[in-house]
Amino acid sequence: MIRTLASALAISLTMLLPAAAEPVRFAVTDVEGLEALQQEFGGFQKSLREITGLDIQLIPVSSRTAAVEAMNSGQVELVLTGPAEYVIMKELSQPRIVVAWQRPDYFAQIAVLANGPIKSLDDMKGKKIAFGSVGSTSQHLGPAQALADHGLNYDKDYQSVIISRNVAAEALIRGDIAAIGLNFGHLNSIRAAFPDAGFTVLARGRDLPNDILVARKDIPEEVFTKVRDAFVKHGPDLMKSVLTGDDNKKFKGGVFLTDIKDSDYDYVRSMYRTIGVDTFNKFMD
């Protein structure tokens, strides 16, 4: 009888205790490894946890494909990704948009040697132009679109080559290529790495769509609302915590944008089409 009463009391107490909150797992597609993720987003994790009261957890993913698989299998609730990746992720996972993370001065450029033979875009016809990572918004798709906007068709009016930017800068200085497609921040880093070489920008694209935080399509509505409201009501505090990461300095001077629609990324879809990609159901290799 005593044992029966004790068991009943234990059950009653268990029913009265609040259930442990389910974790809200946060991944970033361009940060590999838990240590790097904690260095970049540890401060943000703490702030978002304090503001929302949710158990925010950082989950490393090895690739953008792995991020999609984790979302589809219910292993992550939130993913921060780039605009080019979002377009593919939209097709594969149908995520919900939470908020865009503005990146000031986020645009693509075509740079040449200041004292080189290329003086106009017409001079690039038939020449080699280097781009960065395949499928990168600002190093591949954006520069290709900037050229297309000026009448130069991808891989028809010039030859595209994929080269990492410091190697591409060396190739440009040697005269092996005519130009480099890259973003504003990368051009500044090249100028710092090669101070004896001068570079000139011959074409600049429009400001690119921003990085975007998305939620798993079946995320609990209460969780989605709490996270979204955190950015609406505490944006400056959250941005301050984001900027504690070195790589996250790219967001300095930016704000969180909540009035964002999927159609705002149609420009990225047009960039894919510029390089000959008409379907968005897989990531580029």
TrEMBL record:
Gene3D superfamilies cross-referenced by the UniProt entry: Periplasmic binding protein-like II
Pfam families: Phosphonate-bd
Signal peptide: 1-21
Keyword Signal part of the UniProt annotation: yes
Keywords tagged on the record: Signal
Keyword Signal: yes
The protein's name in its UniProt record: PhnD/SsuA/transferrin family substrate-binding protein
Species for this entry: Terrihabitans rhizophilus
UniProt lineage: Bacteria, Pseudomonadati, Pseudomonadota, Alphaproteobacteria, Hyphomicrobiales
